[in-house]
Sequence to fold (285 residues):
Amino acid sequence: MTATSATGTRRLQAHGVEHVTALLESDFGRLSRGSWAVGNHYLLDALDRGEHDRFVLWPGDDPVAVVYAGPTGTVVPAGDPAAGSALAQAAEDAGWRILIGDAPICRAILAGAGRALFRRKPSAREQRFMVAGPAAAQTGRLECLRRARRDDLDQLTDFACRLHVEDRMGPPISRTGRAAVRTRMQDSVDRGATWVVERDGAPVGKVDLSLRSRRRGAQIAGVFVASEWRGRGLASGAVTTLTADLLADGFPVVTLHVRSDNAPAIAAYTRAGYTDQGAWLLALR
Fold:
């Protein structure tokens, strides 16, 4: 690890990865031996991939909190909310666009930064972090769910742009912005991380994976069904089917997060075998 900064933080070096991995797996000592912190699986996967240089620790000598800054402006913290002020500076240095993670430390980072540091005032909303394990529902499968192809890209781009507005991520995406969304969706399709719900030979919905790790599990994201096809159980069926297939394929756990005020979605995910593991926070700017 490098020298301590003015805020008491240190950037993680390769020789400290094993120790920080153990801290994240045990949720900084809060979990008993033999269990691991599923809520930290995104961070653990980043360490597994060798992205240790994107982690900042606080305090540097004996960390009780960390923050990971992804290459696209997504920042994910974990640990003690007392790290808020120090990790707020690290997040600002990374030029964050999306802050997401356990609610207490995310709120502490927002409070610790102060409005003067931000380019614009962030908006934040509570999410529920939900987990499906081996007991997830095996019924209600959706046979019209398939892997997305490149010839689906126009429809997938439209779905992603509509979801951006419906999920209160921001105003409608501009034409220039749509090109970036298309590029992101093409990357997801090429990685095999997007599925489409098909009806009458055309996509009417989609589901993405934001994490797919044989060691750490999978995370479902980007669930969308076109408005004219809603009310037919397509979204819940797609999530049920994909969750069951991932678990059957050996993934240890499947997770997702959903807006706390989206009661229909929470109910659908509960029927699919997901359990609510607590509050997360999603902040955007």
User: Anything to note?
Assistant: The first strand starts at residue 10 and ends at 11. The helical segments are 17-25, 41-48, 84-93, 103-113, 153-166, 175-190, 234-248, 263-271. The chain has eight helices and twelve strands.
